[in-house]
Amino acid sequence: MDKYLDRLGIYAARLVSQKEYFVPGHRACQGCAEALAVRLMSKASRTNTVIACATGCIEIFSSPFPLTSWMVPGIHVAFENTAAVASGIESGLKAIMRKGRIPLKKINVVGIAGDGGTSDIGLQALSGALERGHNMVYVCFDNEAYMNTGIQRSSSTPFGASTTTSPAGKVVPGQTTWKKNMPEIAAAHDIPYVATACPSYPFDLMEKVRKAAEIEGPAYIHILSVCPTGWRLPPELSIHAGRLAVETGVFPLYEVERGRYKLSIDLPELRPVQEYFRIQGRFRHLTEEMVNKIQRRVREEYEKLKKKVMMTREG
Amino acid sequence: MATRVGMEVSIAAAEAVKQANADVIAAYPITPQTHIVEHLSELVNNGELDAEFVPVESEHSAMSVCVGSSAAGARAFTCTSSQGLALMSEIVYAAASLRLPILMILANRSLNSPLSIWNDHSDVMSIRDCGWIQVFAENGQEVYDHVFIGFRVAEDRNVLNPFMINIDGFILTHVIEPVELLEQEVVDRYLPPYQPLYRLHPDSPVSIGCFGPPVLFTEAKKAQNEAFCKTMPYIIKAWQEFGDLTGRYYHPIETYRTEEAQTILITQGSLGETASIAIDMMREKGEPVGLVKIRLWRPFPFEEFRKAVRGAELVVVMDRAVSYGGPGGPLAGEIRSALYPQEDHPRVVNFIIGLGGRDVSPEDFVQMAQRAKATPGQWYEIYGVRE
Q1: Domains along chain B?
Q2: Could you tell me if the ipTM is greater than 0.90?
Q3: Which domains does chain A have, with CATH numbers?
Q4: How far away is chain A from the Cα of B197, in angstroms, using its nearest Cα?
């Protein structure tokens, strides 16, 4: 019997370190999947990490002076410059290690920002840092709007979603543009590693962060972070909504490793997008016609992604 | 022995950054700053300077890279001009509040519009209150010297504040001047390697740049202002020690023939050299005029300034920037408020000159001094307008 109990320990969750680097007591909303994603990311990147954090929810809920939730060192400077600050940290550490002023040590430099700080105002700094090839990880926590300032639309807000600056009005039914494809933009920089992740799939997320930290050169991870407050859904459905985003194909999980695409979960059949929309207040106003339009687009995009996987397959 | 060579001021500045053994240089090209970073990238690529040269995609990122690397414990340098400063100004403020000892050379150039690549001081005046120590250099030697002085002051544990050297675009950056270069051994003695108080490193985790709730923000700003004001003696000490090593002594306020002067001209930057020629011309005719040059712009040396103009009846302030709808130029506003608490303060007349690269000759200074004297009640004038 003891023998079998021992083997139960092999269950994946038990293999993950019990140590926390992003600790409780912070001020995130109930059911904030972003806080969970940050916690998982920190577990994966571990102690040898320096964080550069953009202005936004994470910064506000994790570090009101004189408190901090971070067990690893970090700096917040401004909204749009996280990738530049991270590349500065990387360059600085590299120079002073090379010149023998501090001992040589592998340190993961990780830049973190929201979707606004990444796909809108921070895009230029990010593109510059990726192009220059700094050895750093950049993680975008995408909750699909400017949640910290009160749910305003960003270029990462999905088509049809109602936000405070793309409200579902009598004439215009919410967001009129399609979500900017940040992972593809990052991949177009020909960097060694790009991945999408979601805290509803914790082991997958941690594995990707670990991989990104190990790879030499810039890595980009785009994490869908369900926001119950902004998406208008009950906090207890946060993890469920993340799963539905993946299972409907709205947010596919994949990696682009040295130009090779690989699906993390290959779904034989996508669930209807309506299942994902139904639980969220921000999509409540969608007409059947709009849902169908989105459904078609999701299928097309998923097929496109699968083609990329086929085309870049080894051998 | 120190060697005296003819050298473009930008090259001398870059050579100083090399001798100061900077660790990270981040810069984006903008005229007239370019020669400095071009030469620095040459020095790095030729293996003469062991540093990371980060060719960023904007000035905003240039300052952000400096902030990141300085917080990691590296000696960071950047330089810019005009629009570049305007773009990075958000992070210029942050660098000061984060108390990071970054050194920046600002090759002064006017701000748009209309577009002008030429010199005035509208760029630096736009960030007057950013919390950086700001000095104006008058010639190439001062630029070269202040790279070492700047790092030394900024990294002093009693200071820990970024430092900015203003040098007039083209008028200084692009001219060849005699510069006395220091022996490396002298530099190393004056400027030891940077030892940060805190640094971003996993061995001693810190959270830097936390947000300030209203209950603490005012206190944080008061603490910053107090710390900033207290930098003055350490700046003066660094100048003194530099003088002891090199024989070149600098002061917050420099005076030229102010003894018994009834009229005193006030300048910043390279205007000082031209103005001193005008002073000689007027003195030769027996006119009691003198010159006061403001080297240290922030923190402003109120006491030294009041002392320098004591006894004068008329103070003529030369501004190289406009404060639209304000008290004339920004420097004149400063001078007036410095003199206000004094009973019997001199009359202050302000001329705005040398905008967008407009030449200012010694004769212009003579004319302005005469006009100020002859026009009671004059407040300010944009001088030399072609009508």
Answers
A1: 3-246 (3.40.50.970), 253-382 (3.40.50.920)
A2: yes
A3: 19-311 (3.40.50.970)
A4: 14
